[in-house]
Design a protein that fits this description.
single chain, 31% helix, binds succinic acid, eight-stranded parallel beta sheet, alpha/beta, four-stranded antiparallel beta sheet, TIM Barrel
Length: 299
């Protein structure tokens, strides 16, 4: 059975990876999951300088999902290159480094710092809803998307995946803007803006009031947006948003994704991404499929 997929010229041995921010930088999971089995590992967002993130509470449960307000906490690119990338490079998998910034120049500086370091692909986070500067503010206007993508492409070496937000009116327009500025692939969806109120304390559950909703509750939105984006661009799409099972992954690929990322499910079960891969293989066997690309021609 052929499970390999090509994302922007980089071959992944299978299409399943954890979503950024749900798998640490691999170390926390390595004791429980055979990382060699995954098509790629996507890191937590890396910024040019260390970031403390938001004050607690940062994660709260909702029906069929979770709201997070982490705020892109990370130790900065120097620490990432010293401590995390060498760890991840031990495994027989691709390393996708998710990058973030407060300004276009910061995004480009992180990309530049990763030049020639062994990171296989970069994922540009212009969709985090939990920071005052950068993140989502760069991902909702097509012209701004073009500016940041073009600036990062100029100073980066690896193929660039642009991670899109669902908090927009037309995902097709944003996807097309990313592609026109040189994106090599897109990934979607990041979290949906949400809010929760603790009615007993009469307080917002999250100090920033709004957070990002993920988990099975958002899967139908993700499938719809992956479908729409796939009609708007020619570059490959990594689909994510509420994937809990192999059948969810199949649905995302039938919608137009070439690969899939498993996010919130990793918090419920440490082996979620590898389990999704196993279940995807079961689906292919049961349906007489020999090549992963056959999934996309089933519609
Ligand atoms: C966060 O760190 O706040 C979540 C990351 C994201 O939404 O991109």
């Amino acid at each position: 059975m052929n499970l390999s997929v090509n994302i922007a010229g980089v071959t992944l041995k299978n299409p399943v990876m954890p979503a950024s921010g749900t798998f640490g930088n691999g170390r926390e999971y390595a004791e429980f999951v055979d990382i060699n089995r995954l098509g790629a590992v996507v890191t937590k967002s890396v910024s040019i300088k260390p970031q403390l993130g938001n004050p607690p509470c940062r994660i709260t449960e909702t029906a069929s999902g979770i709201l997070n307000s982490v705020g892109l906490q990370n130790a900065g690119v120097d620490a990432f290159l010293r401590d995390d990338l060498p760890f991840l490079k031990q495994f027989d998998t691709r390393v996708i480094v998710n990058i973030c910034g407060h300004t276009i120049d910061e995004y480009a500086a992180v990309a530049e710092a990763l030049l020639g370091t062994g990171a296989d692909l970069l994922e540009l986070n212009i969709s985090c809803p939990n920071v005052a500067e950068g993140g989502l503010s760069f991902g909702v206007d097509p012209k701004t998307v073009q500016r940041v993508v073009a600036a990062v492409k100029k100073r980066s070496g690896q193929p660039l995946i642009v991670k899109l937000s669902p908090n927009v009116t037309s995902i097709s327009e944003i996807a097309a803007a990313a592609e026109s500025a040189g994106a090599d692939a897109i990934s979607l969806i990041n979290t949906l803006l949400g809010m929760k109120i603790d009615i007993k304390r009469r307080k917002f559950a999250l100090p920033r009031k709004v957070g990002g909703l993920s988990g099975p509750a958002i899967k139908p939105v993700a499938v719809r947006m992956v479908y729409e984006a796939s009609r708007a661009v020619r570059i490959p799409i990594i689909g994510m948003g509420g994937i809990m099972t192999g059948e969810d992954a199949v649905e995302m690929m039938m919608a137009g994704a070439s690969a899939v990322a498993v996010g919130a499910a990793n918090f419920r079960k440490l082996t979620a991404a590898a389990d999704v891969l196993d279940e995807l293989i079961v689906f292919m066997n049961e349906n007489g499929l020999n090549d992963i690309t056959e999934l996309s021609v089933m519609l």
